[in-house]
Structure formats: structure tokens, C-alpha cells
Amino acid sequence: MASEPVDLPAQDVAAVVHRAFPGAVPAADYIAWTVAACAEHGMTPEVTLPILVTCRDEVLTDFKAFVSSSWGLTFSGSSLGGSFTMGRTGLDAARRHIPETELPLRVAFFVFPHVGIDADGVIGNIQRQGRANTSLACGAIITMREQFLSGEVRLEFDPTDPEMSLLRQRIAPHLLGRPVPDLVTITELVREAAVDDLVATGITTGGPIGDLAVFTGLLVNGPNETSWVWPNAATVHRQHEAVSIDLDIAQMRDF
Ligand SMILES: [Zn+2]
User: Fold this and answer.
1) Is 54 inside a domain boundary?
2) Considering the entire predicted model, what is its pTM?
3) What is the domain extent for residue 68?
């Protein structure tokens, strides 16, 4: 019978996470920083709709709770793996949910595919509550990676597996004919594709949305069921001034 995992001391958890993801910060601290960083630009939680683009996995419950407790009820843009599948129609639906009294419309996007790391520093492994055995995160991205490694990849749309089909189709151009990268690199590809697809809707350069913020990075599911953010970029787009401002992620590390 497998034994229950022993909790690591907190400093050891941080050491394991930082070895693989230097500069990662506890997810709760990161989300608190996003509120402070946006407030300088008039984007307070009272007038801003948060939209989460991440995976469906229940291991992200903490992260989703941090976002909603700081930013209010979130519009879900989540799908298996964390692709940007809500598209222009999803954005339109989200836009209609903002009360007219809160015009101009303001939106904060959180684009965060996830990856696990266990107490031994093995990337892709996580210990889930109530399960003695090690589990995988992100299961969808790991499955996709294995399919590419096997050389047997279905690229047509499969209506019995729609989200995986879309994930494979979106990432295939980056992988076909090349060596399959490691899990962190492939998770980064998923993240970059999601941000590219979000930007391609035109939402960051005009349209009916007022100011918007885009926060992106990897969400790391660490040992002892901890959640970390490995930040990549944070940008506020001020539509009326047609400027994009890169927020200072370094500032967040002292937050
Ligand atoms: Zn996942």
C-alpha cells in the first residue's frame, strides 16, 4: 500500500519550486500584486471583469479562488490545457456581463496554463488531496506531448474530444518535424499561443473594451498542494490613449 506523502517544511517547498522555476512567487501574493498594479491605472476590482484562461483541472481551485476573492466573480475562459478557446464570441458574452454603470468596460485577463512539481523536484508530478499516488499536471499537455513523442498524432477535429483536438491542432505547427521539447517548454508554447490568440482578436488595440490588463505566466502546482506563479509578462492596454504599459514584475517580488 502506498504511504501518505510527508509534508515538506515550507522553506523546502520554496527551494524545490525555485530550483525549477526561479523567481516563482506564491500565487496569493501574485494576485494581490495584480490588484495594486492595476489600481494605478484606474482598474479597480469594482469596475473590472476578471477573465481566467487556464485549465479545467480541479487542482487550480486555489488559484481561481485567489483571483475571485481579489477581483470578484470571474468569467471562465478555461479549457483542457489552457488554450484560448472562448474566442471573439466568448469575449462578446463577457463584455455584455459588465454593468453599464461601470462603463468604460475594463477587463483583466489571467492566462496561466499549469505544470506540477513534486517534493522530489520531478516536473509534471503532483500529489493530489486524498490520493496516495502521484498524479500528473497538466494531464492534457502531458498526454499531448506523449502523442507527439509517439509520432501518432490525430490532427483532425474529433467531436468526442473537442478540447484536446483544438489543443493539438493549435500546437502542432510548433512541434511537427522538430524534436519534442520538455514539458515546461511545451507548456510555454501553450501559453504563448493563448496570448497570441487573445491579441489576434484585436481586443488589445481597440474595440468595445476600455482599458484591459493581461497577466500571463505558468501556474506551478507545488509540493504540499501549494500554488505558485512563474510570471512572464503583465501589460495594461489603455485604449483611449492607445498605449500599452508593461507593468514592473520585479516590483511584485518585493510586494
Ligand atoms: Zn491541466
Assistant:
1) yes
2) 0.92
3) 10-253
